[in-house]
């Protein structure tokens, strides 16, 4: 996956997120570039969700998918994340326009794709860090199977998703089918994506992407 660089002024390191999206049915191809200040540590590598995870974790049954409604907020209680969600489109190069650089606590939803709670896989992206500290999805790789992700929608409903897997996928072996394909046909699913692996200062990119897969298991008002 290639990278984009955004100049942020003299003496300021480049940072941001760029996602190349290829729409082929329900498949999406993603890419992300995030730069980091020398004083900020990069997230750990590996499948963090697999570490210490019971092999027989029992997951709840899938809930019936909802109709279409736009997301307003995403909450991940296990990580202490409470973030507004903004719809993002594509930039002139065909990449998802990420949340503004000066709003690291905001999550982006690909507005041209699936709405969270509807059938298919909705795509959320977020910064992992900024030049001053951690950002909205900094701890994403530490999520465990069974964790809850709640998305407040503009129809007054809260779609509750249950995490079923967390992957750290190397950029040089990135597989769009594995990352973004629906796990089970007919379900409402959610993907949370950010940078992962280690930070390569020469190329100013991370070596991997963290992809959290979740599916709809409940609805509240």
From TrEMBL:
Keywords: Hydrolase, Membrane, Transmembrane, Transmembrane helix. This is Class F sortase. It comes from Streptomyces glomeratus. The chain crosses the membrane at residues 12-30. The keyword Cytoplasm does not apply. NCBIfam families: class_F_sortase. The keyword Membrane applies.
């Amino acid at each position: 996956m290639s990278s984009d660089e955004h100049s942020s002024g003299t003496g300021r390191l480049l940072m941001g997120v760029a996602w190349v999206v290829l729409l082929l049915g329900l498949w999406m191809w993603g890419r992300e570039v995030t730069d980091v200040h020398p004083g900020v540590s990069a997230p750990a590598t590996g499948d963090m969700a697999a570490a210490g995870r019971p092999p027989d974790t029992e997951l709840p049954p899938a809930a019936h998918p909802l109709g279409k409604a736009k997301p307003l907020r995403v909450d991940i209680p296990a990580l202490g994340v409470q973030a507004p969600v903004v719809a993002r489109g594509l930039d002139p190069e065909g990449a998802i326009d990420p949340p503004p650089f000066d709003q690291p606590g905001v999550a982006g939803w690909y507005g041209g794709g699936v709405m969270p709670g509807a059938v298919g896989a909705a795509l959320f992206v977020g910064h992992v860090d900024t030049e001053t500290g951690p950002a909205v999805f900094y701890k994403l790789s530490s999520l465990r199977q069974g964790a809850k992700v709640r998305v407040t929608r503009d129809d007054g409903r809260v779609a509750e998703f249950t995490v079923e897997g967390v992957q750290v996928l190397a950029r040089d072996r990135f597989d769009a089918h594995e990352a973004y394909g629906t796990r089970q046909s007919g379900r409402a699913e959610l993907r949370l994506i950010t940078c992962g692996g280690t930070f390569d200062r020469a190329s100013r990119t991370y070596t991997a992407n963290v992809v959290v897969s979740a599916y709809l298991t409940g609805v509240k008002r």
